[in-house]
Amino acid sequence: MESVLRPLIVIGSSVVITLLVGWLVDRLLRRADSRHHETPLWGLLRRCRPPLQVVIITALLRGSYRQMGVSWVWEHRAGIGQVLTLVLIGASAWLVVRVAATVVEASYARYATGSRDPARVRRVRTQVTLIQRVVIAVVTVVAIAAMLLTFPPMRAVGTSMLASAGLLGIVAGVAAQSTLGNLFAGFQIAFGDMVRLGDTVVVDGEWGTIDEITLTFLAVRTWDERRITMPVSYFTSQPFENWSRGGVQMTGTVFFHLDHSAPIAAMREKLRELLGDIATWDGRDWSLAVTDTTPTTIQVRAVVTAKDADDIWTVRCAVREQLIGWLRDHHPYALPRVATSPAVLPPGEQWAELTGAGPRAVLDKAVTADGDGSKAPRTGRG
To answer: What is the mean predicted confidence (pLDDT) over 139-147?
Structure first.
């Protein structure tokens, strides 16, 4: 009877204590969250309850499993203790990672709620994301190392590795030069405020927004939903355009190639009228001017503004479409065309043509119709 009761008491008491502690911690966090609505930390910490309970029950079983009084447990006590130790190390690492992620997320949420500058919010978001990933990487490495050191053979290996740490460090540094470069470039991007999550950038002729930043690579989401993955070292060694740095407001241009007879003043008034009906125009500035000319066309540039890169694209497309439609319907002569008729003569030559004294009239008098109906120059004496 004792061989049955003692395991039940050991396991049952561990489970009861674990559930009781988890319930008590959750109740305290819920009460703190209800009293401090401005701080989301207490509510987010409730997500740490599962790893906390795993740590508690594993620690309790690790300290009391030998008291079960079961023969096979005593015979395999070393293996059972080893497994419980590994589970305890893994659960502890899980708890640390979850707490760190919760603290980072709560800090970012509170900062994002109180800040009115989207650029600073994106900067903080980039930094806390990289910090969170660094914490996860460090805790994972430490947990794996601690697990390996629980095995006696690995202790000797660890001693030999420490003895040759200098040589291994040199070899690892040479072999992982690119990886380490990307790692330090990631920190430089995060804390140097070069590029942030959500920034609009132009990289290698591709326009998109920063979708993800890790310690080694950076993902750009283009306008057509493609993802361009690039090493973070590219952004520290190559030039690129960041349209969100220094403010997200944008100025865009729309070019028209028109005939020389285009009504520029009427176009300017029509542009002002069109912008009043375009919701994405922010009203900061606009203009229309002739910026270039060629023997056959003129170049007209319209300048418009918007609050961000997405809206400036919409404004430019709307202005281009509606102005071209207006010219086609009301001023079709202003659209560029290929001339196939004779050019208009200067005023002096036009008067000579009308009076019959021009070079064309003289040429017409110098030709006659031959017998088969064709015209040929008159020959012979006058």
So the answer is: 83
Q: Alpha carbon of 349 to those of 194, 215, 298, 340, 363: distances in Å?
A: 67, 77, 27, 20, 14
First to last CA, the chain: 151
pLDDT range class, residue 264, cuts 50, 70, 90: very high
Residues with Cβ within 8 Å of 41's Cβ and at least 6 positions away in sequence, in order, are 102, 103, 106
Q: Which residues pair with 298 in a beta bridge?
A: 258, 293
The backbone torsions φ and ψ at residue 292, rounded to the nearest 5 degrees and listed phi first, read: -160, 160
CA 79 to CA 198: how far, in whole Å? Answer: 50
Q: How far is CA 196 from CA 111, 127, 199, in A?
A: 16, 9, 6
Q: Are 119 and 244 in contact (CB under 8 A)?
A: yes
Rounded to whole angstroms, the Cα distance separating 68 from 121 reads 55
- Residue 330: pLDDT band by 50, 70, 90 thresholds? very high
Task: State the Cα angle at 66 between 65 and 72, rounded to 5°.
Answer: 95
